[in-house]
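User: I'm putting together a teaching handout on how multi-component assemblies are represented. Below are the sequence lines for each component of a complex, exactly as they appear in our records. Could you produce the 3D structure of the whole assembly as structure tokens, so the students can see both representations side by side? Please keep the chain order the same as the input.
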Amino acid sequence: MYGWIWRHLPGPLAVRIGTAVVLVAGVVALLMFVVFPWLEPLLPFNEVTTQ
Amino acid sequence: MGSVEDTRQGIGHISGALTGPDVPAPRRGRRGARPDPVRTVVRTVGEVLITLGVVLLLFVVYEVYVTDWLSAGKQRDATAALDDQWTVGKEDPQRVDHFEGLKEGDGFAKLYIPSFGPDYHFTIVEGTTEKSLEVGPGHYTDTAYPGEPGNFAVAGHRVGKGAPFNDLDLLTSCDSILVETKTSWYVYRVLPMSGEVKNWAQLKTSKPHCNVVGSEGRVQEVDPIPADYTQTVGMEIVKPTDGSVIASIPHKPNAKLAKSSQEPLLTLTTCHPKFSAKQRLIIHARLVDQHPKDRLPANQPPPEMKES
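Assistant: Of course. Below is the structure of the complete assembly, with chains in the same order as your input.
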């Protein structure tokens, strides 16, 4: 999977590393700001009220 | 790996060029043969599992740190809005707190726990929805307001989201919990723990914060409250379904007692143990003093703030 992505990144090594870092950062940001905030209320870790 | 293959391809090209045009350049080198499908599947499954592990770790980072950071901004905004609101009506001659008409998520008071350090302050917002609790500790809408007879009940996160109630388990009897409103500072003190009630008369003499002389020379009594309140102790751990801890008379939701003769209490609720929603940690405190702001030096907190 990662090997396939790496082989399909264009440009010389430096550009490929740059692109890879940007891709990873994008995925992390997507998780942190979209996926996790959506997921969190569905999980039972944060119930602090009674009733 | 990629760079090594590149080099090899390059050599292939060069050698191909040197030996003449009819020798085909090995385009994909050693891996020209079709890759073993089993190998590909196993490797991909491994990569997916590792990825899921990393995502799980990221979720922990999100819960413990990122939500703190997101909530800090919301808490700052709520505090700024409340400060504005308090400054605007400062010349209000009535000097009475108004709590009616509060909307979900509106800040209306500030919470200080001096034993958690001078930096510990949170703006309390109205309501206990998930959204309100991201801003700060939230007031259970149908309970009393600060200083009123009855139970001023507040919920807050234990981990993440600013974690206002992270250390509630460290509170001991007589620790002060201060609530600042527009006009007053209300001093609540944590009630005696269940194990302390019996020997309280003796115990309280050894605890410095149990005999503080407050405003107008009165001693701030933290004695257990008799009659209907015998089950109300400083700290308890209850089931999540036990809504009676925030009743006007804790554990006695059906007791009939005129509002005016109800004890003014403060109840804090959070999850327990940390990182779990299995139980609830409950702190009960009673109102022991009130400092109207116009009787304190301008913009000065009350003397209880220096307790640690």
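A couple of points students might notice: The interface with chain A takes residues 1-3, 43-44, 47-48, 55, 58-59, 62-63, 66-67, 128, 130, 133, 140, 155-161, 165, 238, 240-243, 245-246, 269-271, 275-277, 280, 282 of chain B (CB under 8 Å). The longest strand of chain B covers residues 279-292.
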